[in-house]
Design brief:
Elements: H1 2-11, H2 28-45, H3 53-60, H4 64-70, H5 74-96, H6 103-125, H7 132-140, H8 145-171, H9 180-201, H10 205-208, H11 210-217
Helix pairs in contact: 1-5, 2-3, 2-5, 2-7, 5-8, 6-8, 7-8, 8-9
Length: 228
């Protein structure tokens, strides 16, 4: 259990970025990775509107000409960064929500990991930052269709993992969830609200109550459920 949990905490919200050797123009793959990493960090810590191409290039250590070699606009970079982020997170979601793990344990571990990660970010950066996907989506979705579409696509993928766990738990008679898709959307909506509230309040308290709230929605009082 400790090995996959460690992988989850270390990979689920982190970028795998190559180290930049030498001076001058970075290697193509390295420059792109650094631009995506910089964009993600700046937008998450501040906002999309407050993050300029110049600030992204400065954080990445990449020349502005290189930016426009890879991307037509900040919006194109944001979409690419979102996709790359998801490609890196997906294998970890696959592991956490593995069919080899009892369904309610999958959900429990997932919710616990969210609190653990937000606590880590609070300690390292001094602020509760919530979820970058929720932050970006709520800020820009009405103004940028391409970003809205990508955010919706990735969030829908995440909901499917919760749905799969609920569907199996219902099938085993562990919970009553005849509409697992609807229940998964409701749980994810709660998750979105909690992380947004935590960012606004700069408080971990809403996140600390997340698991209890979700299990209450499922009619479960035992927060350490056992497989049937």
């Amino acid at each position: 259990m400790d090995s996959w949990r460690s992988s989850w905490f270390s990979l689920i919200f982190d970028w795998s970025v190559n180290k930049w050797y030498g001076e001058g123009m970075p290697k193509t793959s390295d420059a792109k990775a650094k631009l995506m990493e910089a964009a993600t960090e700046l937008i998450w810590s501040s906002s999309y509107g407050a993050t300029s191409v110049d600030s992204i290039c400065a954080r990445a250590g990449v020349r502005k000409g290189s930016f426009y070699y890879f991307y037509r606009s900040k919006s194109d970079l944001a979409v690419a960064a979102l996709e790359e982020d998801w490609l890196q997170k997906k294998p970890v979601y696959d592991s956490v929500f593995s069919p080899m793990v009892p369904p309610l344990e999958r959900l429990s571990n997932y919710l616990e990991s969210i609190h653990t990660y937000q606590s880590k970010i609070k300690k390292e950066r001094g602020w509760v930052l919530g979820c970058p996907m929720f932050t970006l989506g709520s800020e820009i979705s009405t103004r940028d269709p391409s970003i809205r579409k990508k955010v919706q696509e990735i969030l829908a993928n995440r909901v499917k993992y919760i749905e799969s766990a609920l569907r199996e738990a219902h099938g085993r008679g562990l919970i009553a969830a005849p509409d697992p898709a609807g229940k998964a959307r409701a749980i994810f909506a709660l998750l979105q609200g909690v992380l947004t509230q935590a960012r606004i309040q700069d408080s971990l308290e809403p996140v600390a109550e997340l698991k209890n709230s979700v299990f209450d929605m499922l009619g479960i009082s035992d927060l350490q459920p056992k497989a049937a």
